[in-house]
Amino acid sequence: RTKKRLAAQQTKILAYLRVRVLSRDAETGSAAVRVELADGRRDTHLFSRRGRMEVRDGDGVPIALDGRFGVVRECRGEMALHLVEGTRLQFGDAETRLAQSRFEARIAGVDANAETVSIDRGLPEGMRLEGRLCRVESGEAETPYSHSSAYRVAAAEDGNNPRLLLHQGDPRLARGTIASVEPPDVLNCDVPLAFAWGFNNSGDKGEYRGKLLRTEDGAFASRIVELLAFKKIRLESVAGLRAGSRFEILDSKPGDRISIPNSGSECPVRRT
Asked: For residue 105, what are the β-bridge partners?
């Protein structure tokens, strides 16, 4: 019965959907795909890892993207252009533009309790940050994080101390107490770091490498080199760290880079 239901759903989808690949280039990481619906709507999706691509569709209409992602939606003689992390999307004689593809800054300070980060530059003009995705990456090329982090901007404050309030933005990945210290660079703690080590005891997954471990009183801070076991951490140095101290591991720290993609739409645009 389940197979019959899935087959019926698939047949219904295929009856209402047609997909064509207009362009695909694995070397540059770009693609253009057209999706046509039975009710007359037609979407053209463009993606470019390098941030630029040009293509002509089956009707000979030139399409150009200066950015990461764009969508052209056509319906009943009108169309809407949607651009993400780019500066220009052109479809024939219509186009939409953005003054900047993204806002970038460095973290100047982290307030874990307030779930805010202060940044080293003023907020951009003409680009609303509230509700946008905020990527956080290591600011040091020689010690990159093993993964990038992303938050949602809940509020933004400009002025002498520009700040971003992040949705669920508490940067503390773990908190605990130092059980013992093994000079020159190892500590044992009281909290199992199962997510970063692997629940099946598979070893260090790299989630905490390069992250900052600091004591809650601010007297000590050092970057994590690797996990040695569920409760055993190797740091760059444990000099000055004492057993019994409360610690926290932060997802972000001063000096890290933030990047907030811009997006915009022109809707509707009448085709000529």
From this structure: 258
Stretch 15-27: mean pLDDT? 85
Contact yes or no for 232/219 (Cβ under 8 A): no
Tell me the CB-side half-sphere exposure of residue 56, using CA atoms within 13 A: 5
Task: Give the DSSP letter of residue 40.
Answer: S
DSSP helix, strand, coil percent of the chain (3-state; round to 5): 5, 55, 40
Q: pTM for the complete prediction?
A: 0.79
Cα(185)–Cα(188) distance, integer angstroms: 11
The token duo for 136 is: 């956080």
Please count the CA atoms within 13 angstroms of the CA of 107 that sit on its side-chain side: 28
